[in-house]
Design goal:
about 190 residues; mainly alpha; 10 helices; globular
């Protein structure tokens, strides 16, 4: 199978996830800056989540452009990735409703960690099918950014029970690391 249908399906699911996230935002109760100030934490959580979902979508797009074909294993790995991304709106709401309590903040990290692991699983399945000499396999190499991200998510999950704001800072750091699209794939595709 080629990648067009998989990419179109993923684009649709990501669009729905983002739509659900924005629908979870509530209008402030009042017309003053003070009324808006009460919603700043959830707005920032929304921005972080939007950026994270966007990062996964952007890198997924690059990965599929470095992929010649997919099979059933790739399709299932993609579905599992989308499952974890679909939980992002739920954990944002939980964080907001709890006032950034430790367990919901840790749960946010678990969702991002599982999405990252599933992205890696998807990558492995694509490489398994397309070969170790494929464009994607060569571009990914040792995937130090991916490994660092997993480590930072794990650290954030643990630290959420000590100081939730430290966990959020680590989640922001991971997003900052990935904010620029994966140039490893782009540079190989141009060569």
């Amino acid at each position: 199978m080629n990648t067009a249908r998989l990419e179109a399906f993923t684009d649709g699911v990501v669009a729905i996830i983002i739509t659900i996230m924005v629908l979870e935002l509530h209008v402030p109760h009042g017309t003053t800056l003070a009324a808006l100030q009460a919603d700043v934490p959830v707005l920032l959580a929304y921005v972080l989540s939007y950026v994270n979902v966007g990062i996964f979508w952007n890198n997924h797009h690059h990965m599929l452009h470095a992929t010649e074909r997919v099979d059933g294993r790739v399709l299932w790995a993609n579905l599992v990735l989308l499952f974890w991304l679909s939980l992002v709106p739920f954990v944002i709401r939980w964080i907001d409703d709890s006032g950034f309590a430790p367990l919901p903040t840790a749960a946010y990290g678990v969702v991002l960690l599982c999405a990252a692991l599933c992205y890696t699983l998807l990558q492995w399945q694509i490489i398994r099918l397309n070969g170790r000499e494929s464009l994607l396999a060569v571009a990914v190499g040792q995937d130090l950014k991916g490994k660092l991200s997993v480590l930072l998510y794990l650290l954030g999950i643990v630290l959420a029970f000590v100081r939730p704001w430290i966990a959020i800072a680590l989640y922001v750091l991971v997003a900052a690391i990935w904010l620029v699209p994966d140039r490893r794939i782009e540079s190989r595709a141009r060569a």
